[in-house]
């Protein structure tokens, strides 16, 4: 089913440096950084606050999202409907950062986003967001035509109070619950979900970014 968008932007390259710079420009804490994950078998040496998967269309994700119910009743969980085409990288960043307590600088663009009554409309109309995003997109490799883009960005986050693991995708109808984690577990302990998607498609390029504290 096709989706109507308010506008279209250039896709972001899945580069941790580009993602980190954009996140900081929008107002995320300087201590947060994105890093590449090259294997699901080796745990990163520092706690993982969130994961972003960049992946081509795959049957496992399609089945998963078709059979899972979505809801957005939890006021403490930040999820926003994607209304800007090709900007799923931005939405993944927002879903990561805005679900981490005390990760946003007061008076920043992200602070304004969090305070907005309509967050989707805020993103559509914010000149600052568009300028920061365009700068990040231009820093990457030459963009493919929109019709050639076959990769999508989603993220996994841990709810700060319930320990519920959520899959967040602005293209879905809301957050998708993926089971509970223990108090001592971080988002890395939900990586089996990502492995299922990767294993369902033998061809195509998958990339994984972890959001961590650099200090």
TrEMBL record:
InterPro entries linked: Papain-like_cys_pep_sf, Peptidase_C12_UCH, Peptidase_C12_UCH_sf
UCH catalytic domain mapped to chain residues: 8-213
UniProt KW keywords: Hydrolase, Protease, Thiol protease, Ubl conjugation pathway
Record-annotated active site: 88 (nucleophile), 152 (proton donor)
Pfam short name (any one): Peptidase_C12
Catalytic activity: Thiol-dependent hydrolysis of ester, thioester, amide, peptide and isopeptide bonds formed by the C-terminal Gly of ubiquitin (a 76-residue protein attached to proteins as an intracellular targeting signal)
The EC number(s) this enzyme carries: 3.4.19.12
Annotated site residues (Important for enzyme activity) in this chain: 169
Site description Transition state stabilizer, residues in chain: 82
Keyword presence, Hydrolase: yes
Family under the similarity heading: Belongs to the peptidase C12 family.
Record-given protein name: Ubiquitin carboxyl-terminal hydrolase
Organism: Aspergillus pseudoustus
């Amino acid at each position: 089913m096709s989706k109507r968008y308010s506008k279209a932007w250039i896709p972001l390259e899945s580069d941790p440096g580009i993602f980190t710079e954009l996140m900081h420009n929008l107002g995320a804490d300087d201590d947060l950084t994105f890093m590449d994950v090259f294997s699901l078998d080796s745990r990163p040496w520092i706690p993982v606050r969130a994961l972003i998967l960049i992946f081509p269309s795959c049957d496992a994700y399609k089945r998963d999202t078709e059979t899972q119910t979505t809801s957005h009743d939890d006021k403490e969980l930040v999820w926003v409907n994607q209304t800007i085409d090709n900007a799923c990288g931005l939405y993944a960043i927002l879903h990561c950062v805005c679900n981490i307590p005390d990760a946003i600088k007061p008076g920043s663009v992200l602070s304004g986003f969090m305070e907005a009554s309509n967050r989707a409309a805020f993103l559509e109309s914010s000149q600052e967001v568009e300028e920061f995003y365009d700068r990040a997109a231009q820093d990457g490799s030459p963009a493919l035509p929109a019709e050639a883009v076959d990769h999508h960005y989603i993220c996994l986050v841990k709810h700060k109070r319930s320990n519920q693991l959520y899959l967040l995708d602005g293209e879905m109808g809301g957050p998708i619950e993926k089971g509970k984690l223990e108090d001592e577990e971080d988002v890395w302990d939900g990586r089996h979900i990502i492995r299922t998607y990767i294993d369902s498609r033998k061809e195509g390029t998958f990339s994984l970014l972890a959001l961590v504290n650099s200090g």
